[in-house]
Structures are given as structure tokens and as C-alpha cells.
Amino acid sequence: MSTRVTQHSQTGSPEAFDRRLLTPMILGSILNPINSSIIAVALVPIGAALGAPPSQTAWLVSALYLATSIGQPVVGRLIDLYGPRLLFLAGTSLTGIAGLVGLLAPNLGVLVVARVLLGFGTCSGYPAAMALIRREAERTGRDSPAGVLTALAVSSQTIAVIGPTLGGLLIGLGGWRTTFAVNIPLSVAGVAMGLLWLPRTPRPERGPHDRSGLDLPGMALFAAMLVSLLLFLMNPGATYWYLPAVTVLAAAAFAFVELRRAEPFIDLRVLGGNLPLLATYARALLAYVVSYSFLYGYTQWLEQGRGLSSSQAGLMQLPLFLTGILVSTTTGRRREIRGKLLVGAACQLAACALLTAFGSHSAIWLLVAVALVFGVPQGLNSLALQNSVYHQADPVRMASSAGLLRTFMYLGAIVSSAATGAFFPRRADTTGLHHLAWFMLAVSALFLAITVADRSLRRIGGAARPH
Fold first, then answer.
1. How far apart are CA 79 and CA 176, in angstroms?
2. Whether the predicted model's global pTM rises above the 0.85 cut
3. Using one digit for the tens of pLDDT, what is the confidence trace for 200-256?
4. 341 partner at 20 to 30 Å CA-CA among 97, 237, 246, 417?
5. Total Cβ atoms within 10 A of residue 154
6. Distance between CA atoms of 79 and 214, rounded to whole angstroms?
7. Can you tell me the distance from the alpha carbon of 432 to that of 429, in angstroms, rounded to the nearest whole number?
8. Residue 238: how many CB atoms within 10 A of its CB?
9. How far apart are CA 345 and CA 37, in angstroms?
10. Is 139 left (phi over 0), alpha (psi -120 to 50) or beta?
11. 74 burial class (0-12, 13-18, 19+ CB within 10 angstroms)?
12. Neighbouring residues of 242: CB distance < 8 A, sequence distance ≥ 6
């Protein structure tokens, strides 16, 4: 009660969103996108410095997403149970430690460890922010805080887009190690703001030593299922035939355990009956296969196939950044979801088709044009997917549902990383880019088909949310 009184007095109205929360929420939620995207222009210089081909440096991408795919829903569930403050502070601190490890790393193996730490460290910010938004919405009576949701989505997608440009500038100033070092000041700032402004959450009534709410077996089986699946996706082939079998066994055991627990890690009964939310997760997977294939594969081609420097390749992403920001800020307060997804799908198809015409001497204006077209789905899809989860998920599991959304996003990123490694086995050449573009085109078509078939999207944006 005292926390709420303090909040009310400082916001000026018991019905106003506590604006002090915005800065730590946004900073926490961008830590993962900035580390996801900034590495795109660092892969080539890291490979050159450490003597590693693209098929090996791809682990720097996959390691972060492997850790984050597991960590997001796990941390989200902990936030649902114990509140966002403690998990936010712990994750943000780990992010700074990971930045220091990367800064001092002597070889590729240690860099991969740093990326794993970054994955676990950055996975608390987004579910914590979504939980805080839901709590403030319930406190203020504003069930759909479109402006706050838009600010969260725009900041994350903005950072994801400007990451390559920022990375190119940092590499130009101090080499590729600066792309890890940037996490240190961000971590310090995040911890300071979290200590000052994030509200303390009372301990649950079950007591501090009662762990009945923590489904540790479910979490362990979920991790085993994802690790085996993602390792196979990163190394598909007959040699690793046993990994899909492990995935199936872990999935079966996970379902068996979750369906028998009173407080499961992921409530499969509720999730299985929520087909709109499952469709949103599927769209997230497909959308981010395309998005990250462009971010990683296309950026590497700009450097090796087109002959641009790291800084120049980063600058080539600026049109995407500008378009994404313009689209997000223009459409952010509109609650309607289906139209955004349809336009985003159409622009993905158009941009992927453009990539099939690229060559080693493609004009700069064509490079700018494809970035502009890709900027439209960049601005629409992430915002629409986030708002879909906000309206479709069970409010008491908002943080874990938001974490699961990020899991599917990062599954898409790992699929894109595996595809990039497969199409660029030794060098990011134009033939590989064309093969990657046809793959992206097929995924974009499936994204469009699922969106057209999902009639439940028509109900989001009209009446108020029933919860």
C-alpha cells in the first residue's frame, strides 16, 4: 500500500501511469535487441581477427538466442510469482558482467560464453516491462495503455534496427570489442534506475521458503527440449540424428509433467485452448526468421559480397531504421492488429523478391530501396505481435506469456542463423544471398497465409479486452 501511495503522489494522480517506470522499462527491454543486432556488423571483423569462418561465428548469434529462448519464459514465470524488481536487477547486473567477459575474451570460445551470459542477463527486461504495464493498467483502470505499449515496442525495434549502424561506428572507433563493452555502462545505468524507481513486490502468501509455485521439473524439461531442438537447427544433418529424438522425448515428458501440476511452468491446458495466442507465437517465429535473415545474412553479404566496410554496411541499415520509426510512431496508437500484419507481410514478400535481383555491383540506390521496404514490416510486425499477446494472454501470466513470445522470436532468429550458415558456408557471396532470399520468400508467404486465415485478429482493436 505504501508503494502505491508514493507512486500516486509523485505522478500527481492515482489514475496516471507512473512515468518513473518508463526509463528502466525501456532500458531493460532494449538490452537484448541491442546485443542481438549490434553483432551483425561485428561477425566479419571477429572472424578475421580470430580466424573463424561464418559457419563458426554464427555461434555468436545462436548462443545468445539459445540462452534467451530458454531464459525468457523461465524468468517471466519468476516475475509472475515474485515481481519484476529482483529479477530486473539480477539480469541487468549479469549483462554488465557479460560485457566485461566479451571485452577481455582471448578466443572465440570465450566470446560464445559471453554471448550466453548476455542471453540470460538480458532476458528479464522485456517480461518485467510487460508485467509492470499490466499492473499499472489494472491500478489506473486503463486496460489498454496503447501509448506505453507503443513506446516499448518502438524503442525495442528502433534499437534492433540502429544496432548495426551503432556497431559499425563503435568498431570504427575502437574495434569489435567495443560491441561487448557497451553493455557495461548500460548495465550500471539500469541497476541504478531499477534500485531507485522499480516498486518492491510483497512476498507471496505461500512464504519465502515455500517453492510450490516454482515448477523446477517443468523448467528443466523445457530447457532440455529447446536445447536439443536448437542444437539440431544449428547443425542439421544425419550426424546429429539423435537430437530430434531427444527433443520429442523431452517434449513428451514436459507435457506429462505440466498437465499434472497444480501450478505448472506453462499451463498447457490454458495455452492449448488459446488458439489465437498460439497463432501469434507462430507468426512471431516466421516474422523473425525473415527479419534476422535480413539483419545477419544481408549485412554479411554487404561486407563480403558487395565489398562495403563494416561502417558502410551499418549505414546501409539507416533507411530501414528511419522507415521503421516512422511507421511505428504513425500507427502505434491504433489498436487494430490485422491490417498491420497484412501490410507487414506484403512488404516482406516485396523486399525478399528484390533481394533475388541483387549482385556484386548492385547500385547504392537499390540497397537503400530494399532497406526502405524492409522498414515497413520492421515497424508494423513487432508492435502488432506485442499488442496481440497483451490482449490474448492470461493477465496473471503476462510476464511468462511475454517471455514465451520472445522465445518464439528467438527460435526464428536461430532458424535464420542456421539458414545463413547453410547458405554462406565459407563466404557471404551473391549466390548464397539469392538462395537465402528464396528461403525468406517462402517463409514470408507462410506468414501471410497464417495471418489471412486467423479470423480472431478481427476482434482485437474493437471492443475492450474482456479480462
1. 34
2. no
3. 876 555 544 444 567 899 999 999 998 898 888 777 777 888 999 999 999 999 999
4. 417
5. 20
6. 11
7. 5
8. 5
9. 21
10. alpha
11. buried
12. none
Residue 173 to residue 315: CA distance in whole angstroms:
15
Closest listed residue to residue 368, CA positions, set 313, 317, 433: 317
* Residue with the three cell numbers 532468429: 413
C-alpha 423/C-alpha 430 separation (Å) is 10
How many Å apart are CA 141 and CA 133, to the nearest integer? Answer: 12
**C-beta atoms surrounding 431 within 10 Å:** 11
Three cell numbers at 314? 551499418
At 362, list the grid cell: 548492385
- Rounded to whole angstroms, what are the CA distances from 276 to 9, 52, 304, 390? 39, 43, 42, 12
Share of the chain above pLDDT 90, in %: 43
**DSSP-derived secondary structure letter, 204:** P
Q: How far apart are CA 414 and CA 420, in angstroms?
A: 10
Nearest to 406 by CA among 59, 74, 58: 74
Cell numbers that stand for 346 in this block: 506484403
Structural contact between residues 54 and 39, judged by C-beta atoms closer than 8 angstroms: no
Residue showing cell 490474448:
392
